[in-house]
Amino acid sequence: MSSANQPESPPWHAAFPAPKATPGAVTASQLLQMIQQFKASGQPTYMLVDVRRNDHEGGTVSTSVNLPAQSMYYSLSTLVALVKATGSVKSVIFYCGSSRGRGPRSAGWFQDALDQHGIEDIKSYILEGGIKGWVKQGRQSGHQEMLTLTEGYEPGYWDQHMDN
C-alpha cells in the first residue's frame, strides 16, 4: 500500500489543548546579556529551556536545560514548582530550532500554567529565532561570544543547515 493512501497521523501536539497565552520574545542579544549577568553574579534570574528532542544536533545554548516539547505538557506543574522554588528566576525562555512551533507552544503552555497558579512575578518567553537565530547572530562579526556559549557547537553542521 502506498503512503499516499494512508491517512496522515495527527501532529504530536494535537493531543494537547492549544495554549491560550502568547508569550513575548527575548532576542539573542538580550539573552547574551542575561547569561553574562548570571555568570558575573552567580544569581540566576532566568531559566533557558531547549525543547528540541531528536533534532538536537549542532549544539545548545549554555545554561539550557533540555525538556522536549513532546513531554512538556505533562511536566508543567513540576516546572512551575521548580522555577517558583528558586525565588530568583523571573523569566523562563523556551526555544527550539527556529522558535516557530515547539518553542512558542511550550512557552504558551507554561504561561498558561503560571496564570492558572496565579503567579504574576514569573513570565514565559520564547527565544526569537530559536537556536538558528542564536547561531546566526553568533556567526556575525562581533558576536563570537555567542558561539563560545553554545555547548557542543559544530560549525560544520551549521555550514550545511543555515543560510549564512
From TrEMBL:
InterPro entries: Rhodanese-like_dom, Rhodanese-like_dom_sf. Residues 1-21 are annotated as: Disordered. Residues 42-143 form the Rhodanese domain. SMART domains: RHOD. Transmembrane segments: none annotated. Gene3D superfamilies: Rhodanese-like domain (3.40.250.10). GO terms for molecular function: protein tyrosine phosphatase activity. GO terms for cellular component: cytoplasm; nucleus. Signal peptide: none annotated. It holds the Pfam family Rhodanese. This is Rhodanese domain-containing protein. It comes from Knufia fluminis. The lineage of its organism: Eukaryota, Fungi, Dikarya, Ascomycota, Pezizomycotina.
